[in-house]
Amino acid sequence: MINKWILIFMIVASGGLISTAIAAEDDDHGLHTEDIQPWRIGAEIFVNSTLFETDFGDLGGGLFATDDPGIEVNIQQGAFTPGNWLRFQPVGQLLYWNGTQWSETMPNGERIEITDALNSTISFRSSGIDEIAGIIGEIDSKGGLHEHLSFRIFDVSNTLNGSVGAYRIQLKLFESAPQSNTSVSTTATPIAIVFNRGLASENFESAVAAAADLDDIAAFVAESGLLTIQRVKAFGTYYKVKLRYTENNQFQLIEAEEITAKN
User: Fold this and answer.
1) Is there a cis peptide before residue 69, judged by omega within 30 degrees of 0?
2) What is the pTM of this model?
């Protein structure tokens, strides 16, 4: 299937529909340790990355908690609607890095909990997720928002604790009217957050690099008509590309980011 999408991309490229500039990534994997920075264009939410890394062990929260990454709207790129809520929907399940691969097996029954803006708790476990959406905060009068939620890790005894390793969760951002669960804008693909629990820096970075390869290489969202291809080679260079389906049964390139080739 991916060969079909690559062929479409090459046809689109040769047809002269490429109009966006190629933006170089900051590092090898497009990873981010800063805040999640969403912006909105129409009914779609874009973000500065789909993979973020952070560490349990905030000075204020202790060894098994953090309030990073935060969420700060990039108003310059595209503001949200004042008064609406920015929210998140849990996706998938909790994964654990056992030193060689990502696994669904937790060493000691760990789970990660997010406390949202209304003090509701949303859990991520190896067996699944809470099927409820969390609230990040209310969009201000300028269309922006900057909030930090609480992330905590617990073991099977319901104690703040976590085996040494790395943990990965995924969520999707969406915007809704106040008191509503209906989205008015949403991200096309989930955002992954990888947490370090006591690993040495080089070991943690190995886990993060492996996490970058976990997602499907291509994803199509019918509602928005957006096709995201995580890695495609064109003109001797590798790119992550986004294409939008058009009425004449073609895909038009709307965004391309140069990335480092992976072996």
Assistant:
1) yes
2) 0.72
The sign one gets for the Cα dihedral 154, 211, 80, 144 is: positive
Domain assignments of the chain as residue spans, ordered by start: 1-29+217-263, 31-211
Of the candidates 115, 86, 92, the residue with the CA atom closest to the CA atom of residue 183: 86
Q: Please give the pLDDT value at position 217.
A: 52
Per-residue pLDDT of 139-187, as tens digits, reads: 999 999 999 999 999 999 999 999 999 999 999 999 999 999 899 999 9
Check residues 134 and 2 and name the one with the higher pLDDT: 134
What does the alpha-carbon distance between residue 128 and residue 106 come to, in Å, rounded to a whole number? 12
Task: Note whether 193 and 94 are within 8 A (CB).
Answer: no
pLDDT digits (tens, 9 = 90+) for 4-13: 444 444 444 4
The encoded tokens of residue 4 equal 């079909």
